[in-house]
């Protein structure tokens, strides 16, 4: 008898284990599915709403975009860390349509479409040299980060963001599993309202996050 052979029962258990592991990030209700991440500096649209208002109703006059987001789908704020799309491949710019970049093409774990809406989102003031801090609660790792800025003259208060409106200002290398991926970005020629779009390619699978942060270059 060969003791190295795996019994059918063991094989089933093994298969179930592998399957469970690979499904962890896909099951909306699994506890671990809530472990993902976002850009906390400069804060993303929904993370900013969460910081200012928690899970309560934002004040309409003070923060109209968070107010509208809350009323369209409050989960778009409380599920701030799951704005991702799976299996988009290398040509992800064809998979994620223009005008749906800030919602990861309407994918992710809830309806993030309110995050695409143009309007007077609260901005973080930054200089031409700034730092992006991506918080990876799940420690997925990062194969790379791409940081884009909307081109000068494009007005995200009135226009939906398309890929043609974005200029790549940084592409990083790989980061090992850790809680924060921090990168310095140098730009020139930007002033006033812009959106910083960070694309995070997680390392555990083809899971890309599309993270929009409203900034004021001053
Ligand atoms: Cu995840």
UniProtKB/TrEMBL annotation:
Which PANTHER family does the record match to this protein?
A: CHITIN-BINDING TYPE-4 DOMAIN-CONTAINING PROTEIN, GLCNAC-BINDING PROTEIN A
Q: What is this protein called?
A: Cellulose-binding protein
* Pfam family, any one: LPMO_10
State the Gene3D superfamilies in the record. chitin-binding protein cbp21
Recorded superkingdom: Bacteria
Database matches in CDD domains: LPMO_AA10
The residues the entry assigns to the signal sequence are 1-35
Record domain Chitin-binding type-4: where: 36-215
Q: Any idea which UniProt keywords this protein has?
A: Signal
């Amino acid at each position: 008898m060969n003791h190295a052979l795996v019994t059918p029962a063991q094989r089933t258990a093994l298969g179930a284990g592998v399957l469970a592991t690979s499904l962890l990030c896909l099951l909306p209700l699994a506890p671990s599915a809530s472990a993902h991440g976002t850009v906390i500096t400069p804060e993303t649209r929904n993370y900013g709403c969460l910081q200012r208002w928690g899970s309560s109703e934002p004040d309409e006059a003070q923060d109209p975009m968070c107010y509208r987001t809350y009323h369209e789908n409050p989960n778009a704020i409380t599920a701030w860390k799951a704005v991702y799309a799976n299996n988009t491949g290398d040509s992800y710019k064809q998979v994620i349509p223009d005008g749906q970049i800030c919602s990861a093409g309407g994918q992710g774990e809830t309806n993030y479409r309110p995050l695409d809406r143009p309007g007077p989102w609260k901005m973080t003031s930054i200089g031409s040299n700034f730092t992006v801090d991506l918080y990876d609660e799940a420690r997925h790792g990062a194969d790379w980060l791409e940081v884009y800025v909307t081109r000068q003259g494009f007005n995200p208060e009135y226009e939906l963001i398309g890929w043609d409106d974005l200029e790549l200002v940084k592409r990083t290398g790989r980061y090992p599993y850790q809680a924060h991926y921090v990168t310095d970005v140098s730009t020139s020629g930007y002033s006033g309202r812009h959106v910083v779009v960070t694309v995070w390619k997680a390392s555990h699978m083809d899971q890309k996050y599309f993270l929009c942060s409203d900034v004021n270059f001053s």
